[in-house]
Q: What sequence folds into this?
């Protein structure tokens, strides 16, 4: 085991109450001989959090924070990301990535409130989360000390972790004694599944892993329509019912889930350099993304929309890599938010057997003009104007071809 270390007086631990973070709690006490403050974030993971409090109390923790951050998570993190239509590598809705800066921000706030000089997370040294947590820590408190146990200790296998837990009388959930097929990360936006059987990219995810969505084959035989209202780029109502951001996303999760919408099987490029395979469920987020783009299609000027789309991959990378509080993300957000001022309207979606389609959209700020676009006779557009437009745009092409003949 690692020898005792010094220099840390108090540490704020991101604590779930599960096996890994419970071991980390005891390891911090043993290794650093410091006071530990636990922080458990409720971001809609759907688990009872009071057991985490009881376990922390049992392990001698005096300062325990359990915070309901669901509304802040959706309003201040998910919604800004949705305004950008952010997709990492074209498909991933960034459900894990966007939660980390909120958790890390709250850790720094608690450290300030409690006088802690360090923070600690349970992310491994192979993944993206260690980067996301620590970039946020340092962006918000450059002087903070960071403890990353997975980069320090020798508990590098499930067997060693369980042995350590039993030695120190740390309760172990019965399902942790065997080799669970997948690791999970859940919040109000999504659930991700990684590891074990999924490490073979040819292996189809087992049907019983999915928790938020029914199998598309078992979804209702009748389609369902729904409408999502937006004001200034943010969703405010579902089927005419006004809801807070957190409740609205939960409602969309419920509707999309029963139709099997929002599953993704992905091999992605981690920031640390390796590829990984994951399965994701993002039911409500999938509907939110589609509906938002539908309202934008009516309300955004062409060049503003194309500029946004050209910046989106970079914006998505910044979130995936952990640069939520970096100046470049904040600058991009300001540009994106400016484009959203007139993104107000309603999108109508049709859900059926694992698919969602946009089938209608309307807006009081619509730039769609039937009198201009109609195939019928009109009095507002002179089709002869297109001839000069085409000739001017073709001029460089003609000159280039003419030069080839010299």
A:
């Amino acid at each position: 085991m690692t020898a005792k270390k010094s220099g840390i007086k108090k540490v704020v631990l991101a604590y779930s109450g599960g096996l890994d973070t419970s071991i980390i709690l005891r390891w911090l006490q043993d290794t650093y001989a410091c006071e530990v403050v636990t922080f458990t974030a409720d971001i809609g993971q759907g688990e009872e959090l009071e057991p985490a409090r009881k376990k922390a109390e049992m392990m001698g923790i005096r300062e325990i924070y359990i915070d309901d951050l669901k509304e802040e998570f959706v309003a201040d993190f998910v919604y800004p990301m949705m305004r950008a239509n952010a997709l990492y590598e074209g498909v991933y809705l960034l459900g894990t990535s966007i939660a980390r800066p909120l958790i890390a921000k709250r850790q720094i706030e608690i450290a300030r409130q409690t006088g802690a000089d360090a923070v600690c997370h349970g992310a491994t040294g192979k993944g993206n989360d260690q980067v996301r947590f620590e970039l946020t820590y340092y962006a918000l408190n450059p002087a903070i000390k960071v403890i990353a146990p997975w980069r320090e200790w020798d508990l590098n296998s499930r067997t060693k972790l369980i042995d350590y837990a039993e030695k120190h009388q740390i309760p172990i959930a019965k399902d942790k004694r065997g080799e669970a097929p997948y690791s999970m990360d859940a919040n109000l936006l999504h659930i991700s599944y990684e590891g074990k059987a999924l490490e073979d990219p040819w292996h189809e995810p087992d049907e019983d892993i999915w928790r938020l969505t029914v199998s598309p084959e078992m979804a209702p035989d009748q389609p369902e329509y729904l409408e999502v209202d937006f004001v200034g780029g943010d969703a405010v109502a579902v089927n005419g019912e006004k809801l807070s951001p957190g409740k609205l996303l939960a409602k969309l999760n419920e509707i999309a889930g029963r139709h099997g919408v929002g599953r993704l099987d992905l091999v992605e490029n981690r920031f640390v350099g390796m590829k990984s395979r994951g399965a994701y469920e993002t039911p409500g987020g999938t509907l939110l993304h589609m509906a938002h783009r539908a309202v934008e299609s009516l309300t955004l000027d062409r060049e503003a929309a194309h500029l946004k789309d050209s910046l989106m991959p970079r914006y998505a990378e910044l979130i995936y890599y952990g640069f939520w509080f970096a100046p470049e993300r904040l600058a991009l957000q300001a540009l994106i938010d400016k484009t959203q001022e007139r993104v107000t309207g309603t999108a109508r979606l049709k859900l059926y057997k694992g698919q969602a389609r946009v089938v209608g959209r309307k807006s009081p700020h619509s730039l769609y003009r039937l009198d201009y676009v109609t195939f019928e006779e009109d009095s507002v557009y002179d089709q002869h104007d297109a001839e000069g437009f085409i000739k001017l745009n073709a001029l460089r092409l003609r000159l280039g071809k003419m030069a080839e003949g010299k």
